[in-house]
Amino acid sequence: MTTAVRIGIGHDTHRVGSGGKMLLGGVNIECDHHLIGHSDADVLLHAITDAILGASALGDIGQLFPDTAAANKNRCSQEMLRIAYEQVQAAGWKINNLDCVILATIPKISPHREAIINSIAQLLEINSTQVFVKGKTGEQVGPVGRGEAVVAQCVVLLQQQ
User: 65-95 pLDDT, tens per residue?
Assistant: First the structure.
């Protein structure tokens, strides 16, 4: 028996480095920090990619785009998400909605929320009302609260096409 809907959760963490721009949800955010990673380090798109792959039982971002492969060095996270979503769609699923949380001290998320939502919706060719993004600061606790890391989490609801 096939399930009509599936839920997936994605999580990712990247260290923060000084200088440059920060890429979140496909949006370049002007600030004095950037995220460090093997790819372009878009922590939010990585969490979304993991969520949709997991919900459709197609693996995870590390299986599809291993950091041991030279082709994935500095790879565009938008491209990785597009490829993953094409596989999800080929398996018979489509996104009903995404609910995302970015845990970051810098930058503040609320001024960039609409741009991030619209970027994700455009990338996945879904309506912006199917995407929501929240920001949390970490309240000065742990690596997020100290500004050492940015964490993203995403929950996705997939439905059969």
Answer: 988 888 888 899 999 999 999 999 999 999 9
Give the chain's domain count: 1
Distance CA 79, CA 82 (A): 5
> What span, in angstroms and rounded, lies between the C-alpha atoms of 49 and 143?
23
- Classified as helix, coil or strand, 146 is coil
* Three-class secondary structure of residue 119 per DSSP: helix
Domain coverage including residue 20: 5-160
Paired with 102 in beta bridges are 135, 152
How far apart are the C-alpha atoms of 72 and 85, rounded to whole Å?
17
Q: Locate 20 and state its tokens.
A: 């440059």
Is 91 exposed, middle or buried, given 0-12, 13-18 or 19+ CB atoms closer than 10 A? middle
72, two tokens? 């994935």
Q: Looking at residue 141, which CATH number applies to its domain?
A: 3.30.1330.50
Task: Assess contact for 27 and 119: CB atoms under 8 A.
Answer: yes
